[in-house]
């Protein structure tokens, strides 16, 4: 796994495929491997660069207060260090919050923006939910178990639990197999979620943007209209029968519809090469 020095931290990442760079930003408590089901498709058309954010995987876990803006600064510094001038940016949940900050603060670095299960400002309900996850992580002293017991039920529908228990188990096994996130790092990362507020920056996002939610996502779907109307020219897509993790509940549909958006916003030169090839 390659690593680069991005300002004051060393960041770990994985790169697959060829074509224009597509940077995949993980969600809360996850490392770069969380997009395995998407990279398999995306890398046929793009150079997929999956990151470990600060506090996760093999990226540094420094002390101090973290914010979604700081995480975006890290991604911008990573791009600079890796020689990536401009990229497609995609993220789920915390990854979407980080992507919005990146597009607002560093517009020249973002070719297109894919926001899945994002939100603009943490409201009292979301703050209560994430605070509960923090309490559970401290009580269990194990972030992976907290994810399976505390976060999974918000990510998947009751119908998926009933119809495909073996699939839920496989996802739980996957979470438990990844490099352990220290509880202290999870607390700092989830504090960034609790303090997220991008409302004043929304008008600065100029990149072509796709916004997606699961229909029954209680965590973030209520922000759909505000995000769609606040990001000019954005496209809104709702996945039926999904909660907060549409990328796992409707893998084929999610991959197809997100890839269609990404390919429509490939650079002219790359699009011409793809057509001629």
User: Termini separation (Å)?
Assistant: 30 Å
Number of helices, counting only DSSP H or I runs of 4 residues or more: 12
CATH architecture heading: 3-Layer(aba) Sandwich
CATH fold name = Rossmann fold
User: Which strand order does the major sheet show?
Assistant: 1-2-4-3-5-6-7-8
Write the element-wise H/E pattern from the N-terminal end onward: EEEHEHEHEHHHHHEHEHHH
Query: How many DSSP-defined strands?
Result: 8
Word description of this protein:
With about 280 residues, this protein is of the alpha/beta class. The chain has a single domain, classed as Alpha/Beta hydrolase fold, catalytic domain (Rossmann fold), CATH 3.40.50.1820. Helix content is about 45%, strand content about 15%. Helix 1 links the parallel strand 3 and strand 4. The longest helix is centred in the middle third of the chain and has 17 residues.
Summarize this structure briefly.
With 277 residues, the protein is α/β, with parallel strands linked by helices. The chain has helices at 36-42, 68-82, 94-105, 124-140, 143-155, 158-163, 165-177, 183-194, 224-230, 246-249, 251-264, 268-276; strands at residues 3-6, 9-16, 21-25, 47-51, 87-92, 110-116, 209-214, 235-239.
């Amino acid at each position: 796994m390659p690593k680069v020095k991005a300002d004051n931290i060393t960041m770990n990442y994985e790169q697959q495929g060829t074509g224009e760079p597509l940077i995949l930003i993980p969600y809360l408590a996850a490392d770069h491997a969380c997009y395995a089901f998407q990279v398999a498709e995306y890398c046929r058309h793009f150079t997929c660069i999956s990151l470990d954010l600060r506090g996760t995987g093999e990226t540094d876990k420094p002390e101090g207060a973290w914010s979604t803006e700081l995480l975006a600064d890290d991604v911008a510094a990573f791009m600079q260090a890796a020689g990536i001038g401009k990229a497609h940016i995609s993220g789920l949940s915390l990854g979407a919050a980080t992507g919005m900050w990146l597009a607002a603060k560093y517009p020249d670095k973002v070719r297109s923006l894919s926001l899945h299960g994002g939100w603009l400002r943490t409201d009292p309900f979301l703050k209560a939910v994430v605070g509960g996850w923090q309490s559970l992580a401290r009580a269990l002293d194990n972030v992976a178990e907290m994810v399976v017991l505390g976060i999974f039920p918000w990510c998947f529908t009751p119908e998926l639990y009933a119809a495909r228990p073996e699939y839920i188990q496989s996802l739980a096994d996957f979470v438990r197999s990844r490099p352990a996130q220290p509880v202290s790092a999870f607390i700092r990362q989830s504090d960034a979620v609790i303090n997220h507020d991008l409302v004043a920056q929304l008008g600065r996002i100029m990149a072509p943007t796709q916004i997606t939610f699961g229909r029954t996502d209680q965590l973030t779907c209520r922000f759909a209209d505000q995000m769609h109307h606040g990001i000019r020219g954005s496209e809104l897509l709702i996945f039926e029968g999904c909660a907060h993790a549409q990328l796992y509940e409707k893998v084929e549909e999610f991959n197809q519809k997100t890839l269609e958006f990404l390919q429509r916003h490939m650079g002219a030169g790359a699009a011409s090469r793809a057509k001629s090839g």
